[in-house]
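Is this the right way to post structure tokens for a design question? Let me know if I should format differently. Anyway, here goes:
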């Protein structure tokens, strides 16, 4: 496979893992949100704020279709990307999809101790409110995430090696 799509809830480590995986494979790393920001000259947060989530999802869909044509690439998608339109099918049809699975407690810890302020969907949420938001989000999104070709534990130190074995 010459396209690898990393999917999973925000905070699961798609970008960090993607960069390391790209180094190991010699592929180019691409963060879908960064691709959108560069193309539209606005942050994802600004697009959400100015245009709303529906418009952002349309933009995200178009960007996904564009990058799905790229070769020798590791793509870290936004957490919601697989869950709208037929995006998961697009990714599954052209590459290896990898769901980086983590518990809501693990995700809440990571997000609370990261740059969570830059994430428009969780801005201002902490503690129990953040964890409940993540649990609700996972309930809605996991049906899409579980359609990935490969499902791996995001806390596994050997996750990159496991992906490389599949390739």
């Amino acid at each position: 496979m010459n396209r690898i799509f990393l999917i999973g809830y925000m905070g699961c480590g798609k970008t960090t893992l993607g960069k390391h995986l790209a180094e190991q494979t010699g592929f180019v790393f691409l963060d879908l949100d960064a691709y959108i920001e560069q193309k539209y000259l606005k942050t994802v947060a600004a697009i959400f704020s100015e245009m709303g989530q529906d418009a952002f999802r349309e933009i995200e869909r178009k960007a996904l279709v564009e990058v799905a044509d790229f070769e020798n690439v590791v793509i870290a998608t936004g957490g919601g990307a697989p869950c709208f339109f037929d995006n998961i099918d697009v990714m599954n049809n052209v590459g290896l999809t990898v769901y980086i699975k983590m518990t809501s407690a693990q995700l809440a810890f990571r997000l609370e101790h990261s740059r969570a302020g830059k994430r428009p969907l969780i801005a201002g949420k902490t503690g129990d409110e953040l964890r409940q938001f993540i649990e609700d989000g996972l309930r809605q999104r996991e049906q899409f995430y579980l359609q990935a070709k490969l499902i791996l534990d995001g806390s596994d130190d050997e996750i990159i090696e496991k992906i490389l074995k599949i390739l």
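Format looks fine. Someone answered above. Worth noting: The two ends are 6 Å apart (CA to CA). The mean pLDDT is 94.
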